[in-house]
Amino acid sequence: MFPTQLTDTRAFDIAQALLGGFDHHYRLFRATSAEAKLRFERGDWAGQQRAQAQRIEFYDTRVAECVALLEARFAASSLPMPVWQQVKLHYIGLLTNHRQPELAETFFNSVCTRILHHGYFHNDFIFVRPALSTEYIENDEPGARPTYRAYYPTPTTLRETVSRVITNFQLRGEFVDLPRDVDRVLAAVQRQLGDIRWRANFQFQVLSSLFFRNKGAYVVGKIINGFTETPFALPILRDSQGRFFIDAALFGEDDLAVLFSFARAYFLVDMEVPSAFVQFLRSLMPRKPRSEIYSALGLQKQGKALFYRDFLTHLRHSSDALRMAPGIEGMVMLVFDLPSYPFVFKVIKDFYPPAKDTTRELVQRKYLLVKAHDRVGRMADTLEYTRVAFPRRRFSEPLLRALRHFCASQLEEDGDDLVIRHCYIERRLVPLNLYLQEATPEQRERAVIEYGNAIKDLVAANIFPGDMLWKNFGVTRHGKVVFYDYDEIEYLTDCHFRRVPTPRTEEEEMSGEVWYPVGPRDVFPETFAPFLLGDPRVREVFMRHHADLLDADFWAGHQQRIRAGHVHDVFPYDPARRFGAS
């Protein structure tokens, strides 16, 4: 029974220690995000990428520290359940005026699920649903920065206002030519809005922090004119002399959705009230789930929590069966989905064909590599879960048989639930091999070009995909080709790209076997063609646009640039949109 009185003094002390652990985590998280501005101003691109990767580890480290503290001070795992019920009530009280209550609730869950037996994972002990509202939270302290700033230009002050939008971020350094950039932005706004009637409440609303990722800083906001709202983003870059310039103007939900894509690295953003940022961003991208927005802001644990809540809600309001995912079955992963839900679930198999020389631990390391690496818009983000419970009745019989055959070590029977001990969840994409089968000639050409571009983007980011078959790539609703099979992924700089040696004898030339020595990380790009280019329609497009991918010199040249310290440019928008491209 839930407590009617708070009688155990240990409960309040534990709640305070838990909140102290979260506050320590968020201070470090926010400091790393705030320092992104300084790294951008200095052009410290390697430091920016390190910060993006290292920040991912912050959360689990702080959770482990908090668990150790609670065990040392309170012997937490041996406490009776009534104490934990009171801990939760005290914790809710401590969050009443907190500015990140939803994140603190998730931190509470993470710590408690490390300590408590999974049989106690219900609403009495953890936050299955949020207990506190995140609506209307603002920092009202004197001098505090608001979530967003509102600007009210008139037709005669519009140019001055756009300039002020940029300079209010107080970047330390010079612009190449800010008046020129403002003129370009105004021309883009005019093209976007057309010949509009200027309403009384015409305004810009601009989030008060820049969004940093890789070599760019992004101004994010919206233009409001009457009942019309137009989302926008302005990328700011640095030139070779360290001067700033506005590179493009992006408008509309689709442009913003690509900028915040699940296939890109997380942003570094200084946020006092993250829920307010998420609410603003959802007004720009109403079709993007809150879980993905939290993840895009670097709060991927919150994204995981929200995703699972959304999924449970969807299960309650749907009746279709979980099934084997369409496409060619993988050798390492068993992949299934729910037709009515746009995600796939991936479970590492217990055994693999002899051709796959790998282990469960190695596959997990590959997925962790991708999580921490710059995904350059070409690698799907994954949500990693342990002990995920599904209603057993929702599994189709073929899927249930496959799971019991290939993944028996990962299954637990728990009443009416089937618990999967470890799985990855990704956005569902159309497998590229299936897409090409049904594509029109125009779609096929775009997809093959995109496929080659995806590989080249990965190469520039120091990633060798390993298995480059069409089935390991997918097509997003925006037509982007994205890689999603990571069990053979390697750093480009760890590979040895070679040409196939010239046969020395007629026997070697006619041999159906590999007659030359091959090292464990040797790669022969010219041998890709027989596996990829069997369809003459595909081959013609590929050779016209991406024949260099079959040349070892292409790969070795990128290796040399990366080893020399070069950090590639990544544009989360069409290069034709760049102001300098016109």
From TrEMBL:
Isocitrate dehydrogenase kinase/phosphatase (AceK) kinase domain boundaries:
320-574
One Pfam annotation reads AceK_kinase
InterPro entries in the record, alphabetically? AceK_kinase, AceK_regulatory, Isocitrate_DH_AceK
Per UniProt, ATP binds at A325, P326, G327, I328, E329, G330, M331, K346
Question: Where found?
Answer: Cytoplasm
Single GO molecular function:
hydrolase activity
Q: Residue ranges of the Isocitrate dehydrogenase kinase/phosphatase (AceK) regulatory domain?
A: 15-319
The reply to whether Nucleotide-binding figures as a keyword in the UniProt entry is yes
Q: Which reaction does it catalyse?
A: L-seryl-[isocitrate dehydrogenase] + ATP = O-phospho-L-seryl-[isocitrate dehydrogenase] + ADP + H(+)
Q: According to the UniProt entry, what is the EC number of this protein?
A: 2.7.11.5, 3.1.3.-
Q: Keywords for this entry? A: ATP-binding, Cytoplasm, Glyoxylate bypass, Hydrolase, Kinase, Nucleotide-binding, Protein phosphatase, Serine/threonine-protein kinase, Transferase, Tricarboxylic acid cycle
Q: What residues form the catalytic site here?
A: D381
Name the family.
Answer: Belongs to the AceK family.
Functionally, this protein is described as follows: Bifunctional enzyme which can phosphorylate or dephosphorylate isocitrate dehydrogenase (IDH) on a specific serine residue. This is a regulatory mechanism which enables bacteria to bypass the Krebs cycle via the glyoxylate shunt in response to the source of carbon. When bacteria are grown on glucose, IDH is fully active and unphosphorylated, but when grown on acetate or ethanol, the activity of IDH declines drastically concomitant with its phosphorylation.
PANTHER family per the UniProt record, alphabetical: ISOCITRATE DEHYDROGENASE KINASE_PHOSPHATASE, PTHR39559
What protein does this entry describe?
Isocitrate dehydrogenase kinase/phosphatase
Top-level taxonomy: Bacteria, Pseudomonadati, Pseudomonadota, Betaproteobacteria, Burkholderiales
Q: Which gene encodes it?
A: aceK
